[in-house]
């Protein structure tokens, strides 16, 4: 068995154990209470729970995800390529999961489970799990590293904030959706490349509020880093998310209807 296979198996065991001993708390799903949050039993800041944010984007004349700034950062070559593409080219329409920060702007639930040295982020829409080591160890060794939709994550704690470094993307994802058009000239195409690198900051503001911030760098497509606004997730009064499967044969409209979009 390869080293990578061992890592995957061990990660799956840790996820299962964490789910049994982890999230069993509920909240009001509303405004933050300002109440302090106790750390985990092993002393890390506690990010566990089911969380949901408002949907963000650039629609109905409102740009709530700073996409106009992103659009202005694409290189001329990237813009020319984007003009040859259309909404049907969005990978999520073929059930490919969107990476963060796009996954954070969709307005769907996510769940965080922790165990010593790991944080697991489960997304309800386009269900996937991110396994994030939190001990500041290096990324997966190159010989076992395969580009993917969600990238390869590693993290460290800075006080109460989990700082995550994400790399090794496959370049197939988009940073927003085809319906996101901050200007009348927008194409609704938001490309990424395998060179994309994302820095994330996850912080528990209070008992009912989780804040997410990201910086996106993509030197092959963007002239400068893009900083979307912070996303605030509110605690939900449930202890587990659903597994809402996306099947290409059902069509994207069917999937999005089931999600309540």
Keywords:
261 residues; alpha+beta; Lipocalin; nine-stranded antiparallel beta sheet; two-stranded antiparallel sheet; 5 helices; 11 strands; 17% helix; disordered N terminus
Q: What features would you describe in this structure?
A:
With 261 residues, this protein is α+β, with helices and mostly antiparallel strands. The chain has a single domain, classed as Calycin beta-barrel core domain (Lipocalin). The chain is 17% helix and 25% strand. It contains 5 helices and 11 strands. It has helices spanning 3-21, 67-73, 76-82, 102-105, 252-259, and strands spanning 49-52, 58-59, 62-63, 110-115, 118-123, 128-133, 152-158, 161-167, 197-206, 209-217, 231-235. Strands 6-5-4-1-11-10-9-8-7 form a 9-stranded antiparallel sheet.
Physical arrangement of strands within the biggest beta sheet: 6-5-4-1-11-10-9-8-7
Q: Percent of residues in beta strands?
A: 15-25%
In helices, the fraction of residues equals 10-25%
Here the CATH topology equals Lipocalin
Which architecture per CATH?
Beta Barrel
How far the N terminus sits from the C terminus, by CA atoms, comes to 42 Å
Structural class: alpha+beta
Rounded to the nearest angstrom, the radius of gyration is 18 Å
The total number of structural domains is 1
SSE sequence, one letter per element: HEEEHHHEEEEEEEEH
Specify the CATH homologous superfamily: Calycin beta-barrel core domain
Global mean pLDDT? 87
Q: What spatial form do the alpha-carbon principal axes imply? A: globular
User: Which stretches are poorly predicted, pLDDT < 50 over at least 5 residues?
Assistant: 1-30
Largest sheet geometry: 9 strands, antiparallel
What's the total count of β strands? 11
- Please tally the helical runs, counting DSSP H or I stretches of 4 or more residues: 5
